[in-house]
Amino acid sequence: MNVDYRTVRAVDESWLRIREIPNYEQVAGQILFRKIFELAPAALGMYQFGSEFETGTEDKLYQHPVFLRHAKAVVQMLDLAINLMGPDMDPVTVALKDLGARHTVYGVLPPHYEIVGQALLHTLEVALGDGWTEPVKKGWIGVYTFVSTAMMEGAEEYLKEKMEEERAERKRQEELTRAQAEEAIAGAKARAAQAAKKKGVRFDTVHNISEKNQLPVVTRSRKSLGRILLGKSVHSRSNVSTEKEIERKKIPNSRIEDRGLVTWLDKALNISRHR
User: What is the pTM of this model?
Assistant: First the structure.
């Protein structure tokens, strides 16, 4: 929303009258927050100083140093925003968006801006007295609409950015967890292979015994006894396993279709060993 020169001039002139009030920051701040808490009593809990007081002790609250400092800071912020208004509204827009983002952290929501707007108009009416004319009122409504819109835009941008950051962080954590899991699995496989190697447990599968079937055979001699017996290409190893050991250790993909042949080979191997 753009604020025209006439609006800015009406607001600036009326604000100069507010600044003529002795200790205007504290006076205007007290009127403002009294009205805010009147319109929305629950808003008191949003402030640090509000939790220190029980219901019925508002008069004590409005004299508390923490409250006075906060009320003064809010009026000073409004004073700064008015002074920044002019032909170039970009600086004040940036400042208001940043302020809106910070207020999101405090739990300020869009409905709260409407309450503050009503309280601000009441404060100006009380402080200006006869100077609160219709043109002045219209000018302040325009200015506050500009201020609140910029702050809410800043809050929305902040929340979107925060959501993107959280989404990116979740993705990073998921990728990290996946990488750690893969590393753990690879490490477990490596340790299992190393342990098996230390125990001397090795199994080999005989390939190409026939074009249709593959028969797993485990030999117990370094000599190519299988080649002598079958006339086929057989890988021999030093480890010994019988048919029962093969079944007990559950070798993957092992198919023993001809038990008679395996028994015959086992007997042949025993005979060869005792020679």
Answer: 0.59
- pLDDT averaged per 10 residues, the chain (length 275): 78 93 93 91 74 59 84 90 82 88 84 93 95 93 92 91 89 92 89 82 45 44 45 46 50 46 53 49
Between the CA of residue 23 and those of 74, 76, 87, 250, what are the distances in Å?
14, 12, 30, 91
User: What distance in Å separates the CA atoms of residue 186 and residue 241, rounded to the nearest whole number?
Assistant: 28
Domains of the chain, CATH where assigned: 5-169 (1.10.490.10), 200-275 (no CATH)
CA–CA dist 231, 194 (Å, integer): 34
Structure tokens at 53: 């007081």
Of 93, 77, 108, 104, nearest in space to 149 by CA: 93
